[in-house]
Specification:
Elements: H1 9-24, H2 29-45, H3 56-70, H4 73-91, H5 101-108, H6 113-132, H7 161-170
Length: about 170
């Protein structure tokens, strides 16, 4: 099938050649890109310390910066995508102490079982981390919007029925 090409082939080749020249000169273009992204995220996460308001969006970014040091790349990618795409647009402007159980329920309602399960777990892990932190001005987040909210059911495993059938046939 066709693959959408955001760049014309010549432009992609020129960019690859430019990056190879930089690498030959001892630069690490990807490493520099990652470092710039981390600096941007750390700056965003420290906005609360610079007198900005402490919001769910700020604490999510701080959590993701911390998560970069200790999570597997797939976990960081998945949880980052979930938190930035679902949580921040929905409740990112709220003060963390204003988030209620009804907000958590609203976030996961109407989602597929797998998506609801992933969203709930990513936000709950983030919230546990948030509660352990000392925020600027001695602020502590003591409330949890997860108290009294049952996690969504674990999605049913689709398994690999063909593989199981083949295994049984071989045995």
């Amino acid at each position: 099938g066709s693959y959408p090409r955001p760049w014309p082939l010549k432009k992609a080749r020129d960019e690859a050649a430019r990056l190879l020249r930089l690498a030959d000169q001892g630069h690490d273009p990807q490493g520099e890109h990652v470092a710039n992204r981390r600096r941007h995220r750390a700056h965003t996460a420290s906005d609360a310390g610079a007198g900005g308001p402490l919001t769910v969006a700020v604490v999510v970014e701080a959590y993701l910066v911390d998560l970069e040091r200790r999570a597997r790349p797939a976990t960081l990618r998945n949880w980052g995508q979930i938190l930035r795409a679902r949580v921040v647009p929905a409740i990112g402007d709220l003060d963390p102490d204003q988030v209620k159980r009804s907000d958590v329920r609203a976030l996961i309602s109407g989602l597929s079982p797998a998506t609801a399960y992933g969203t709930f777990n990513a936000l709950r892990a983030c919230w546990r981390w948030v509660q352990r932190q000392d925020w600027p001005g001695g602020r502590e987040i003591l409330t949890s919007p997860f108290a009294g909210v049952d996690p969504p059911p674990l999605p049913a495993s689709t398994g690999r029925p063909r593989a199981r059938a083949k295994s049984r046939a071989i045995i």
